[in-house]
Design brief:
The complex is a heterodimer of chains A (about 725) and B (about 230). With about 725 residues, chain A is mostly helical. Chain A folds into 3 domains: about 325 residues, ABC transporter involved in vitamin B12 uptake, BtuC; about 240 residues, ABC transporter involved in vitamin B12 uptake, BtuC (Orthogonal Bundle); about 40 residues, no CATH class. In chain A, the strands form 2 sheets. A two-stranded antiparallel ribbon of chain A has the order 1-2. Chain A has a two-stranded antiparallel sheet with strand order 3-4. In chain A, a hairpin with a 2-residue loop joins strand 3 and strand 4. Chain A is globular. Chain A starts with a helix and ends with a helix. In chain B, helix 7 links the parallel strand 7 and strand 8. Chain B is about 35% helix and about 25% strand. Chain B has 2 domains: about 160 residues, Rossmann fold; about 70 residues, no CATH class. Chain B is an alpha/beta fold and about 230 residues long. The longest helix of chain B is centred in the last third of the chain and has 16 residues. The mean pLDDT of chain B is about 90. Chain B has a 6-stranded mixed β-sheet with strand order 6-7-8-3-9-10, with helices on both faces. Chain B has a 4-stranded antiparallel β-sheet with strand order 2-1-4-5, covered by helices on one side. In chain B, helix 4 crosses helix 6 and helix 6 packs parallel to helix 7. Classes of the chains: A mainly alpha (about 725), B alpha/beta (about 230). At the A-B interface, helix 7 and helix 8 of A face helix 2 and helix 3 of B.
């Protein structure tokens, strides 16, 4: 790895920061052979856990070209399956391990490759990211459905909790010793497999070029299947080893591997030895913080936030290594989009307001009876839609991936609480938006350097950092103090956060937001955003400042999310840190992308779906659907491999021709029908005569009125 | 005698649109044929169809008298059809040695491949631990060619060997192709109008718009091309 002076400066700055942070928070505990030794032993164990998890990520990325956000969730799922066999059904450990690691997990990997991953080839990176994040939620939902609740399931460590041996005054249990051995063994074996064995080399070769791989005589389909089988097995090994340490809890087990992203980033997603080093730095660093540092109240989570901080720093400071993945460019797919006129947006907004006013006034029969929902559900739907709307300009138009919309929303909610929480004055909403915008601009700084996967990782780190370090501060959200947010005071009205007036207010805000965004899209700023989405290099050569453009779009996006967050605060009346976690934010991103991230209407689609899953779960009351609100968005995101355009696009295509003023949509529909006849028309005119009958037939399908009568000479030529 | 390769009324293309409009071509065992033509003539499509990457929409591809329409490219490669694709036919993230390891899927041992490759192109031996993406264009083409030269294929398909390379490198590569031809290998070489290829070919075929326009001796074709370009 070649480092530039800027890289060295960043590393030096990070080390200096770490030293200053340590000095400021030094606990004063004695530094002796025993305490340091104990820290090292526990730190190395922790590092080994990260190493096992991260090496799975690296192996999957190097052998498939896909960064598998679902790796942790897969490991969690296989850990549950192991628990089921080993402890619930009392199978002997070797058989349970063998069955899960060597049979079920590899088979699961192959199925995943067949059903999902194959269809991801050659698709834009954003889609790959969303589908794997969708898989992550899917596996979490599946596990929560199969094994309900955290009912004190105990995954016992191997060889029991008590045994082990003494090292530097610390008892190293056999389970931990096994974890360390497995981590070292895997690092060595995987390195040998990927660089010394033919099948390992072939797995990497497939990522370079599938077609060339087949020309050498290897079957790329089988090799890809094997790579996913291996990845799934590694996830299972990690899950089974980690479960006794972290507890058999869906979220916890998944997040351990999310924490291991930092170690994989140190290895630049490719190098196993560097990944191992990163994992050890992470493990020992965390244990050092626990052993020798004391953080004041709100920062008590600092040790848990270390992986996030490390990920953020590494992604920003180290040069990015990218696989030369052919055919999976991050460029947007070919887009032929109609730019919505303002009048259409305004009309749509008006229609929405009419529908919501009628529904909330009880004028729409059956809806309330069936959904069993009060106005409050509508409020939740509309607030979610507004937060989703924040991602439309950012991800849909400017192509900047962001998994942290809920962090911005949370910041906005806190700002509203601080500036107008007591009075509920409407100007507080604007202040919340304005104060959140700079936080978005801050997020734009990494975005100036990063694209695609690395930006996604940075935004995840950002969201997790906010979750662990910001919202936990008592000066930010003091859950115990019972701070309440008052009802909204707007133009002389007092709108209760769960009432009909508030819902109508939100709908008007959403409609106005859509119109405003469409106006922005049609402005020079909107064109710049789309230009940087299509090609940053080309945009830069046209004189567009990437820094300025990204800062503005991140700022606007954060302001909208912050506004939405403040509205959420009014609905909830009280805030607590668990409302703004990274995991809760993921369905928001996914459901928007499923709708079609470039369309403001997709935000409404996403909002409706958020509520729909809850309503379906309640109405059906089937116990096996208990995790539908995670499983649903996850599976919908995975289904995008079949329909990459987004649901709103198809709905628009189907309904817009019905609108009297949409002559263009009807024309498009007719052209669509005509192009579906291409096969039938075939090589007409090139290899067989193109007669008058054909002209009439074609005109009929295209709806063209023949104004020029055919001349006999044209017919006699028998072709064009 | 059964020809090594026989194309009969071959039609193929992309997305339902044919690029090849009925190609007839035969290559005898041990024959070297140059397939020439301008951009978009369908030369690369013809090679992709013969190597199994594209299924024909009509007609047949026969190898040693066996119809191989629809046979997967990896099976054809193991059966002895070796395509060196245009551009650089190497795996950029793999080292030189790892690129050679990939050739062992044809059934030849790595030790034999390495020995022959480094003997033919000593420069590759010096760079065996270097990733292929960091090699020069000529070295990458040598690496791609070494797959063809060390795995004893029955039919060699070379696509635009000279593209983007210095004349000296091109001359060296064609020298190697000449050596292969002398050993009796059947070779189909695609080039735009490079004269170098005519030096090693037994027969030349000119393709335009997906159809074969002219077939003849390399010297005659060379003269015709000169006339077409220079108006002589």
């Amino acid at each position: 790895m070649k480092l530039s002076p800027a890289n060295y400066a960043a590393i030096a700055l990070t080390v200096a920061g770490a030293i200053v942070m340590s000095a400021l928070n030094w606990s004063g505990r004695p530094v002796s052979v025993a305490t340091v030794g104990s820290m090292l032993v526990v730190g190395v164990t922790l590092g080994s856990i990260y190493a096992v998890s991260a090496s799975g990520l690296v192996v999957v990325y190097t052998t498939t070209g896909v960064f598998n956000f679902a790796q942790g969730a897969m490991g969690m799922y296989w850990a549950f399956v192991y628990w089921e066999l080993r402890f619930n059904r009392n199978w002997p450990a070797p058989i349970a391990i063998g069955l899960v690691v060597l049979v079920m997990a590899p088979l699961g990997g192959v199925v995943l490759d067949r059903l999902v991953m194959r269809r991801l080839r050659g698709t834009p990176l954003v889609l790959q990211l969303m589908v794997t994040v969708g898989l992550m939620l899917g596996f979490m939902g599946l596990a929560a459905t199969q094994w309900k609740g955290d009912r004190g399931r105990n995954a016992q460590p191997f060889f029991g909790r008590s045994g082990g041996f003494e090292l530097l005054g610390v008892n190293v249990t056999w389970h931990r010793f096994t974890t360390i051995c497995v981590a070292v063994l895997l690092a060595v074996l995987l390195r040998l497999l990927l660089h010394r064995s033919r099948i390992g080399v072939a797995m990497r070769a497939v990522v370079d070029s599938r077609s060339l791989t087949s020309l050498t005589g290897a079957n790329p389909e089988i090799i890809s299947g094997l790579a996913w089988a291996l990845g799934s097995s590694l996830a299972a090994v990690a899950g089974i080893l980690i479960a006794p340490e972290s507890g058999l809890v869906v979220e916890l087990l998944t997040l351990v591997v999310v924490d291991a992203f930092a170690a994989a980033a140190v290895g630049r997603l490719q190098s196993l030895p560097l990944t191992f080093l990163g994992a050890m730095v992470l493990g020992i660093g965390q244990q050092f913080m626990r052993s020798f540092l004391d953080f004041p109240g709100g920062f008590s989570n600092a040790d848990r936030a270390l992986p996030t901080i490390l990920l953020f720093v590494v992604v920003l400071a180290l040069p990015q290594a990218k696989l030369h993945v052919r055919g999976t460019a991050s460029a947007a797919s070919a887009r032929i989009r109609r730019v919505t006129p303002l009048s259409d947006a305004a009309l749509g907004g008006l229609a929405l307001i009419v529908v919501v006013v009628s529904w909330s006034g009880g004028l729409v029969p059956f809806v309330d009876e069936w959904t069993g929902t009060g106005v409050n559900r509508g409020v939740t739907m509309m607030i979610t839609a507004i937060i989703m709307l924040s991602l439309v300009p950012l991800t849909g138009w400017a192509g900047q991936v962001n998994f942290a919309p809920l962090a911005f929303a949370g910041f906005g909610a806190v700002m509203f609480l601080k500036v107008a929480g007591d009075s509920g004055q409407a100007w507080g909403l604007l202040m919340a938006a304005l104060l959140t915008a700079p936080v978005g601009a801050l997020m734009a700084l990494p975005a100036v350097r990063l694209q695609g996967l690395y930006l996604a990782l940075a935004s995840m780190a950002f969201a997790r950092g906010f979750e662990l370090l910001f919202f936990t501060q008592s000066s930010v959200i003091d859950s115990g103090a019972g701070e309440r947010i008052a009802s909204l005071h707007f133009a002389g009205w007092q709108l209760d956060g769960r009432g009909r007036g508030y819902l109508i207010f939100l709908t008007v805000v959403f409609a106005a937001g859509v119109v405003g965004l469409i106006a922005l899209k049609r402005s020079r700023y909107g064109r710049r955003w789309m230009a940087i989405h299509d090609s940053e290099a080309a945009a830069a050569t046209l004189g567009i400042s990437l820094v300025e453009t990204k800062v503005i779009v991140f700022g606007i996006s954060a302001a909208i999310a912050g506004f939405g967050g403040a509205l959420f605060g009014i609905q909830q009346a009280t805030l607590n840190p668990s409302q703004f976690t990274l995991l809760l934010g993921l369905p928001i991103v996914l459901l928007l992308v499923v709708g079609g991230v470039a369309y403001p209407a997709a935000a409404l689609f996403g909002g409706v779906n958020t509520i729909l899953f809850i309503v379906i779960k309640e109405r059906l009351g089937w116990s096996w659907l208990s995790a539908l609100e995670i499983l649903g968005p996850g599976l919908m995101a995975v289904a995008m491999v079949v329909n990459t355009r987004g649901a709103v696009t198809d709905m628009g295509r189907a309904f817009s021709p019905l609108l009297p003023w949409r002559q263009d949509a009807r024309e498009q529909l007719r052209l669509g029908h005509a192009s579906s006849r291409e096969d039938e028309i075939g090589e007409l005119g090139l290899d067989r005569p193109f007669t008058r009958d054909h002209v009439n037939d074609l005109d009929k399908h295209l709806g063209i009125v023949d104004l020029i009568p055919a001349t006999p000479s044209a017919e006699s030529r028998g072709g064009l | 005698m059964t020809p090594m390769l026989e194309l009969r009324d071959l039609r193929a293309g992309y997305g339902g649109i044919d690029v090849l409009h009925g190609i007839d071509l035969t290559i005898a065992s041990g024959e070297v044929v140059a397939l020439l033509g301008p951009n978009g003539a369908g030369k690369t499509t013809a090679l992709a169809t013969i190597s199994g990457q594209i299924s024909p929409s009509g007609g047949t591809v026969s190898l040693m008298g066996h119809n191989v329409n629809g046979v997967r490219p990896d099976r054809l490669a193991r059966a002895g059809v070796c395509l060196v694709p245009e551009g650089r036919g190497v795996f950029p993230n793999l080292t030189v040695r790892e690129n050679l390891i990939m050739s062992t899927y044809t059934g030849v041992s790595i030790s034999s491949i390495e020995e022959r490759a480094y003997e033919l192109f000593p420069r590759l031996g010096d760079r065996r631990g270097q990733t292929a993406g960091t090699l020069s264009g000529g070295e990458q083409q040598m690496l791609a060619m070494s797959r063809a030269m060390t795995t004893d294929p029955a039919l060699l398909l070379l696509d635009e060997l000279s593209m983007g390379l210095a004349p000296m490198i091109v001359a060296e590569l064609y020298e190697r192709v000449g050596e292969l031809a002398q050993k009796g290998l059947s070779i189909l070489i695609v080039e735009q109008f490079a004269q170098a290829v005519l030096g090693v070919a037994d027969r030349a075929v000119v393709m335009v718009n997906g159809e074969i326009r002219t077939v003849g001796a390399p010297a005659d074709i060379s003269r015709q091309l000169a006339e077409a370009y220079l108006g002589g």
